[in-house]
Amino acid sequence: MESSSLWMEGHQPRFEAASQPQTFDVAIVGGGITGLTAGYFLKQSGKKVCVIEKGQIGGGETGHTSAHLAYPIDLRPTELSRTFGKDGLRLTLEAGVTAIDAIETIVMDLGIDCGFQRVPGFLHASLKEARDETAALKADFELVKELGFPVRFLPQGPVEGKPAVAFADNAIFHPLRYLTGLARAIDRDGSRVFENSEVTEFQEDPIRLKVNGVEIQAGSVVIGTHVPLMGNTGLVSATLFQTKLYPYSSYVVGARIPKGRFAAGLYWDTSDPYYYLRVHSNVDHDYAIFGGEDHKTGQVDDTEACFQRLEAMFRRLVPGAEIDRRWSGQVVETNDGLPFIGETAKNQFVGTGYSGNGLTFGTIAGIMAKDVALGQSNPWQKIFSPSRKKVLGGAWDFLTENMEVPYHFITGWLTQGKEKSVRSVKAGEGKVLTLDGEKVACHRDEEGTLYRCSAVCTHMGCIVRFNSAEKTWDCPCHGSRFLPTGEVIGGPAETPLKTVGRKPTRRRTASNSGS
Ligand SMILES: Cc1cc2nc3c(=O)[nH]c(=O)nc-3n(C[C@H](O)[C@H](O)[C@H](O)COP(=O)(O)OP(=O)(O)OC[C@H]3O[C@@H](n4cnc5c(N)ncnc54)[C@H](O)[C@@H]3O)c2cc1C
User: Fold this and answer.
1) Do 328 and 453 fall into the same domain?
2) ipTM of the modeled complex
3) Considering 380, 409, 438, which residue would you say is the last residue of a domain?
4) Is 171 a domain residue?
5) Is 95 exposed, middle or buried (0-12, 13-18, 19+ CB in 10 A)?
6) pLDDT tier at 312 (50, 70, 90 boundaries)?
7) Residue 266 lies in a domain
8) Is 30 close to ligand 1, i.e. is its CB under 6 Å away?
């Protein structure tokens, strides 16, 4: 029986250790999904970054995950809605959807061979208890459906015929192949990924990190170490850790299972702690990863018994399963069930407290780290804020946005601005280009004059789109509109788009060559 995770098999990325003093725009501590996603997006937006990993990239919890890419989170929809309201539920589900879409886009853009595949996810009645959960699961279903997500209620679901809520469009992938692809995309053009490089000291003003005895200086720092650094580094205050974060151990077994026993997909039950199953297909067999038996880290003496109970439950579910490996790892829970993602001090950004949803929350953290570094707002900054507080008896005040905003927000950043030359903008056209790392809204009028301004809407930081009928730049998030020269023609934005580069320039074309 192997006692290492499925993902670590054959995982041998090679990046140099930090060995000389250097300066970067952003230093990112931790080479898991949080750190590498942050590194990728920050580099994409023109920053010179370094990702500093004390061991091998992916060697932390990302290498020990069960690799469900699910947009529903550990908190049941009804529970989440009770605490954070329907808007909180919607924003949280949107975060998951956005993260999975972002991963899919990156996989395609970089051509990463990591088996990314869209699969359904099923929340089903408890494997442990025989009570009828139809009404409670229906309540979850109704709530999520009302918010417009693709769900179905199954009176008899795929797991032991128990009632289930089926969520469409989740995904599976090989997390470490994905991370390796991200790291390779980061480690060039002046940005670096360092392995075998532990951050042992931290100083502010300016930010300096002691790594392998040398000093790395940076304008800002992103802490993607899963459990935030404290101690000598002093990066995150002990108070946050002691009062709001709780590490739990979780156990996993892996097994070949008969083909077709379960369709490729994600399955998790309503037990507390819950059981989770992930199935993917190989040519001649299917492979299942089954996990659960979570407990507060350090609070159970007989951890072997946790594996034994897990195996017994799995064999009940899939008689004939050939269990060939097992591993365990840590998830970090928070006092209210949502992660802490955001700035804990000026120029210090942290992502932690993801519970069992760290692949999606880690991805969102990477996106949010980029937004903070660029001084842009984003849809989740209040709900995931490390300093969020609920007013006693009152409502959470994180939200005024409408449903599509997170979607437009991220798709704009991911999909717009692929081209890099103003020559591609023809007379009468408008295109978002990436020029010197910046998203630039470029419009060429019929006379050949080129207008350039920032494509980042000054209201909430979404990427504007060209309205070819009106020859305006329109924001898909909240509807602000701008002239090609950047002036506001319709709010909610009040500030013009920033002018970029030179004054409008005229190109000699057949139609204007005589002027
Ligand atoms: C058994 C199990 C199953 C899970 N299943 C799922 C799932 O199905 N879906 C899901 O979404 N999530 C799941 N999770 C959670 C998810 O895997 C994690 O939340 C996520 O991988 C955390 O990513 P991260 O980048 O924040 O941290 P990590 O991957 O832990 O990366 C942090 C890195 O920081 C490095 N580091 C720490 N200190 C320093 C330092 N001083 N200097 C330099 N580097 C440092 C570490 O070496 C590590 O590589 C699961 C977790 C476990 C344990």
Assistant:
1) no
2) 0.99
3) 409
4) yes
5) buried
6) very high
7) yes
8) yes
> What is the helix, strand, coil percentage profile of the chain, to 5?
25, 30, 45
Q: Which of helix, strand or coil describes residue 501?
A: coil
In a shared domain, residues 438 and 369: no
Tens of pLDDT, residue by residue over 88-110, are: 999 999 999 999 999 999 999 99
Give the burial string for 432-469 (b: 16+ CB within 10 Å, else e): bbbbeebbbbbbbbeebbbbbbbbbbbbbbbbbbbeee
Residues 292 and 218 in one domain: yes
Number of domains in the chain: 2
Closest ligand 1 atom to 52 CA: 43
Please say which residue of 388, 409, 430 terminates a domain. Answer: 409
Ligand 1 atom closest to Cα of residue 62: 21
Q: Is the CB of 171 under 6 A from ligand 1?
A: no
pLDDT tens string 416-470? 777 888 889 999 999 999 988 889 999 999 999 999 999 998 877 888 888 877 7
Q: Does 3 map to a domain?
A: no
Query: The domain spanning residue 32 has which CATH number?
Result: 3.50.50.60
Confirm whether 143 is domain-assigned.
Answer: yes
Q: Answer whether 5 contacts ligand 1 (Cβ < 6 A).
A: no
Place of tokens 């329907």: 86
- In short, whether 59's Cβ falls inside 6 Å of ligand 1 is yes
Burial tier of 297 (Cβ tally within 10 Å: 0-12, 13-18, 19+): middle
DSSP code of 336? S
Report the pLDDT value the prediction gives residue 243, as an integer from 0 to 100.
Answer: 64
Domain span including residue 155: 16-409
